User: What shape does this take?
Amino acid sequence: MSNVIWRDDKIDTEQNKIKNRIGITIFVLLFFSYCYFLQSPWNGNTVPRVALGISLIENGSLNINKFHQNTGDKAYYKGNYYSDKAPGLAFSAIPAIAASKLYLDSAKGDYKWLKQEGGMISLAFVFVTQFATIATSGFMTALAALALYFVAIRWGAGLGGATFGALAYGLATPAWGWATFFFGHASAAACLFLGLVSILYLLDLPSAKRRDIVLGFVSGALLSWAVVIEYTTAPASAVIAIYGLASALRWERARFIRVFLSAFAGAVLFILPLLIYHYAAYENIFTSGYGYTVFYPGQKEGFYGIRLPRVGIIVWLLVGLQKGILWFSPLLLFVPLALYKLWKTPGKKGLVITIIAVSSYYFLMNSGYAYWTGGGSTGPRHITPILPFICLPLAFLWTKAGKKLKLGLLIFFAISFLISLMSVSVSMQIQQSWDRIHIVTEYIIPKFIEASQFRTSLIVRLLSPSYDGNSHLDLLPLYIILALGGLYILWELKNSQRKSSNPKVSNLG
Assistant: This one.
């Protein structure tokens, strides 16, 4: 891949077009890959979120009384059942839920959300879930990967390194799987990372009043909205905000005040829906559904289920045979080296400290959580938000790597990609005793080889005349698109190398 270091003020129009074409291709490839799958909506995490969205659209209600028998993740307060989750994902999906409901109203006017009163959810509910997932988890994850690509280029990772980092995050980590699930982790990760990217652009760009106000507002809004989606993002949002404030202290006073006030306005405006929701449901702006949870008493211990960290569980989250993140993405073994190389780069120490702080927080939080396993999740889902942060240094590592290290990175990328592909195809939620098997080698790989009911989306099933759910041919369109997209990206990278010999283009690599 090309080691040309791109800066907007040092490239000609054609090179800039190459950069943009690769970025668009990365986004399309990832978004297509996320739309291709839909994890089972029959779970306690998805149902209450979709139910909240439907209830808001149908009758403006916050309760999920109609659906409560289909989920254990619920709160009970003064005669009504509520989702015990943070409401942000449901709020984010309202346009998609409304649009898909409008289609159902016109095409199938007699549909029902439940197969019978108090019974299982219907195909109509699954249909709505599909588009809610695409519009939130899928779109936001692809957008975060695109942001990783562009900010890595701007901060000196090189075109090849930025491409590697973005694809590593989007296709070679469990981010792929969680982008196909209506859980909050993927969208919360995207909001956190996009908030950081907004700050990085502010730090790298010269002062401009309108741009400062916009980027400041966006950074504050995104960091707040991450909390509205997942409560546990609050400390991570604070860490990123502190990094931004500390880095901005060198600015002139007028710019600092301008950005600070706009970021504060964005943060306050976008946290208000959460406070209003709490008051409307529980009559207290600081009380969440976890305080009234029905089936999970552990969430009433400590701080909503979070107690002191446990070192043994941190080890399990890293290398445990059932939940270890390194089994699901061996490529992440290179992250410590990538962070070290980034630390040695002038001007990057603050960024490295922020990445380490955010990642450390999630491991500590997850290890102290009463339900640290994430139920039957495939891998440690509660640490999903760290993935874009720790893949960003991989972009810089690629640029600094020699041929042997690049070969090693490519091999581990390929292995991690295959594991991610198999995981998202089989299931991101394993409904069996996870504590007695090695998930990857004893469940994911055998089930993938067996091709037993791949988790392809409703869109794929409707568009494929030969679909049967039990054949590797069901994945053929995905393979073709990924192969064509990958070849096109390689061609553009080679094209950029050829053009980098032009004296008009600065080769800083």
User: Anything to note?
Assistant: The chain has a mean pLDDT of 92. The longest helix spans residues 123-154.
